[in-house]
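WARN retry 2 of 3 for item q-0093 after timeout on previous attempt; input resubmitted unchanged.
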Amino acid sequence: MARQHHYRRRTKGDAHEIDVTTFLNLMVVLVPFLLITAVFSRLTIVELNLPSSTGGPTQGQDNFRVEVIGRDAGIEITNGKAVIGTIPNKDGEFDLETLSNFMQELKLEYPAQDSASVLMEAQIPYDYLIQVMDIVRAAEVPVEDSIEGEQTFELVALFPEISVGDAP
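OK item q-0093 returned
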């Protein structure tokens, strides 16, 4: 007896449908989350400049240039030519409060100056670079408040145009 193969032909009614409800649920949650995080990540961007040897001041401009150099022993502040201040480490860490006070004094002496260079030695941790940059860019100054007993602080720009590089 001959074998007969019975093949069933597929008809349009037999096609399987893909269930996309779980995928759509994922998109409903994921898309707003990605949009929110994309907005917050733009707030943390700080534009920096690399120091260049060709962008020096012209004859008519003041030759003063703030350079903050982070070293193992402490922080040196130079005017581009000579050291104008040194801040030794306190308990093995940078004395950031003294640096902030020094930067405020420099800003009072040179109010038109907006640029500064932050130079770090290679072995200095990255976290110190960020902290020094924040202090050089701005300072929190106490403001007298009408409410007694409460002291508020105002953020004042010092040297907002920061250049970053390696210490000489």
